[in-house]
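Good morning,

Both structures are done.
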Amino acid sequence: MSKINIAVVGAGVIGKRHMQEIASSDQCRLVAIADPSSEAEHQAGTLGVALYKDYRKLLDTERADAVIVCTPNSTHVEVGMACIDRGIPVLIEKPIADDLASARALAEASRTARVPVLVGHHRRHNPMVRTAKKVIGEGHIGKLVVANIMCLVYKPDAYFDVPWRRRTGGGPILINMIHEIDLIRHLCGEVASVQAVSSSRTRAHEVEDSAACTLELDNGTVANISLSDTAATPWSWDTAAGEDRQLFDYCPVPTHFFAGTNGALSLPDRTLWSYDGEKGRHRPIHGECTPMEEENTYANQLRHFIDVVNGAAEPLIDAHDAARTLAATLAVAEAAKTGLKIDMNADTRFRARDTIA
């Protein structure tokens, strides 16, 4: 099969990562970049591809079989819609949108036009996550009762030199916690209700710098997430999972914990805890590492996207699915703001079932 032609819209940090994976693939080639920055000119020259200041001109000029969208969050839907209108399959970085109405509109446009949209919740392509889904799904820890997740990082002051990161929508709930909520949905079940608190006292920005939430799932599981971008710890997926060691220091400590009636699983170390024989806190519990093949998460995502473009696979997370993750994340932000518990099925602003095709 011939290589597919991929264009990248947005040449920032994540755009560069996608271009790096494309360059390493024998299934696709980079044909063009759209980005108005001067740095993008250097990138395009180095890679020997065309550069466009306006993504629309790229879409109308280049013979792109697929597009990867890595623009600021507020433009994801606009660029995604332009791709759908032209019949071009698209991978859109998370979050799918800033608001649920826009996410639903994009999902409906994808369904109506039959143009596939893959959303870049890349952890779903991580072999650790596949392993965890198998362990939990096959009942190796019994009935899942509690999940505890830590996402505690220290973002340097320079990170906030970009103005939108200090404003509403640019805080760690929508930027970081959305990954954890998607992981919970993928591994544990749909979110039924949300309670949350947040604080901006440490950095005193418009957006939160710390938050915590409790999610009750449809199956009765209780999931807790602790979040901060001003906490000096190794306890976050980015540092512990080693998915991108070019961007994050690697410190292999457990950060995600899933507890069931027969045992427990921690990630990303993949330790499976269980009793020999009778269960009980008076008995010794043993842990062993669950085997897994080492794989490149971003390369896995790109291969899957190519399969989607070629019609060989359905998106692992499509626009409708990503809209449900966004709905739960926005509900966390609202619950933290109001102090109220949000019922995801009763509150029409966040009703997850509305996003099912």
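Second structure follows.
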Amino acid sequence: NVGKSSIVNALLGDERMIVSDVPGTTRDAVDSRLRWHGQEVLLIDTAGLRRKTKVKRRLEVYSNLRSLSAIDNANVVLMTLDASRSFAEQDLRIAKHAHEEGKGVIIVVNKWDLVEKDNSSTGEYVLRVREALPFLGYAPILFISALTHQRIHTVLETAFRVYEKRGQKLSTSMLNDFLETAVARRPPRHTRGGTARFYYVTQTGSAPPSFALFVNNPEWVHESYRRYLINQFRKNFDFEGSTVRLNLRARTRRERKVS
């Protein structure tokens, strides 16, 4: 039991959730509402996903479906880990689902008070998380204790920051100024077919932030360069905790060139 219900209780300030050391105590997604700095928050405490080989009873099947549905309907997912235990297969499944659905993701390491620590403990744990969940490199990692309320305030603070930033709507002129700077800082390399030339970029959606980048030939944009541009988007516009979707589209030579 990673302590999801304990975290919800700490945020609510009461004991609404059943708290137990037994894994699987929460069988369903439970909704709770609170107001934080004048804004309404809906907290959904979900049952953890079970391995498919263990999902036999109807109750467990229902719990898994409800957990996945809760993730689908969430703005921000708090990926909760137990600092005193190793990662489970279910952790990876939940993380992948949240990432693939384009949700805001925060990794919350609970029970940090139970870990014997030295000056390198936090850094070592961060490294373990990044190695286990490489596709969530954009997700902030919080170290808390729901039991002692250690840094519990950072959970909603970070969740609202992620929520607000990933919902940004950026002007095309701002985006193209950014693109020009990013390409000038690191021009694309020549490939076997030719050299990519970028014309313009426009936002096609938010939450998650999504962009269309028009280029002479998308096949000439190496995946490493695409990752570079995505990282520049995240750094420049503070898309912490959110995947950035970048769709490369072909454009003719007549289009205005940025590089």
